[in-house]
Design a protein that fits this description.
This protein is of the alpha/beta class and 280 residues long. The protein has a single domain, classed as Aldolase class I (TIM Barrel). The chain has an eight-stranded mixed β-sheet with strand order 1-2-3-4-5-6-7-8. Helix 4 packs parallel to helix 5. The radius of gyration is 18 Å and the shape is globular. Bound molecules: iron/sulfur cluster (SF4). The site of iron/sulfur cluster has 12 residues, from helix 2 and helix 3.
């Protein structure tokens, strides 16, 4: 396959819906989204529907993953008012489900865990019915940071495994087993919590490796799974190795459900927060 040319199933048309309300709100409240920072291909669809994944703790990451478009420069100081502004956005958008994430902040003593917890607290105060999903970094395996986040009682705790262990060299500073441990410990410490992970395909992994990762995630107590096509943000990023046919995504979805995941989204345009409110 010529990987320079996207196959027909990846030529997505921009949603013609109005995104101006979302963009104005984000500007007014000085909020970042991973939708914009990661150049998500679903942005026109999600913004037009009033959906966004909020990126707290600034937009600069302390790690150097070669597949990711989030900026890799010196992080900004923590803004203690940010949780209130996120909560205001959630209330104004009347979100029934919200996803909060951050760049990895290895420079902070708690990795940003306190800000995740504060954000959950503010959203609970102003939008008590909203289901809150946190997509967290690995906190370098720090248990106290993870416990801080779990104590805020999010509804879903997500941590993306991203790829198969053989390709972890593109996830600078990360460790496959440590990521599994984040999910395992979260499921162990909070019995009523749902855990979730995400996997990108098309990076050079084999089918057998993908199924092994799915099995490892299930062994770690993971209940929800997203599987999507990796798309390189630019020619300076890790190159796409393969475009995966939609039928293979569907076959993987069925296979993963058979392994015991409660809900699986699998398709070329699936991202970990895509249709996040539909996971039941
Ligand atoms: S799929 Fe997620 S990251 Fe992409 S635009 Fe939608 S909410 Fe944002």
């Amino acid at each position: 396959m010529n990987i320079q040319r996207k196959p027909e199933w990846l030529r997505k048309k921009a949603n013609p819906g109005d995104q101006s309300g979302m963009r104005q709100l984000l500007g007014e409240l000085r909020l970042n989204t991973v939708c914009q920072q990661a150049l998500c291909p679903n942005i026109s669809e999600c913004f037009a529907c009033g959906q966004a994944t909020f990126l707290i703790l600034g937009k600069n990451c302390t790690r150097l993953c070669s597949f990711c478009n989030v900026e890799k420069t010196v992080p900004i100081p923590v803004d203690p008012d940010e949780p209130k502004r996120v909560a205001e956005a959630v209330a104004r958008l009347k979100l029934s489900h919200v996803v909060i994430t951050s760049p990895t902040r290895d420079d902070l003593p708690d990795g940003g865990a306190g800000m995740y917890a504060a954000t959950v607290g503010e959203i609970r105060n102003s939008s008590p019915a909203t289901r809150i999903e946190l997509l967290i970094p690995d906190f370098q395996g720090d248990r106290v940071s993870l416990e801080t986040v779990l104590a805020s009682r999010p509804d879903i705790l997500a941590h993306n495994i991203e790829t198969v262990p053989r390709l972890y060299h593109i996830r600078s500073g990360s460790d496959y087993r440590r990521s599994l441990d984040v999910l395992r410990l979260s499921a162990c410490l909070s019995a009523d919590l749902c855990t979730k992970s995400g996997l990108m395909l098309g990076m050079g992994e084999t089918e057998e490796e993908v199924l092994r990762v799915c099995a490892d995630l299930r062994d770690s107590g993971c209940t929800y799974l997203s599987i999507g096509q990796y798309l390189a943000p630019s020619r300076h990023h890790y190159p796409v190795q393969e475009y995966i046919h939609p039928e293979r995504f569907e076959s993987l979805r069925k296979h993963a459900l058979g392994m015991g995941f409660k809900h699986v989204e699998s398709g070329p345009y699936v991202r970990s927060s895509y249709h996040a409110g539909s996971y039941v």
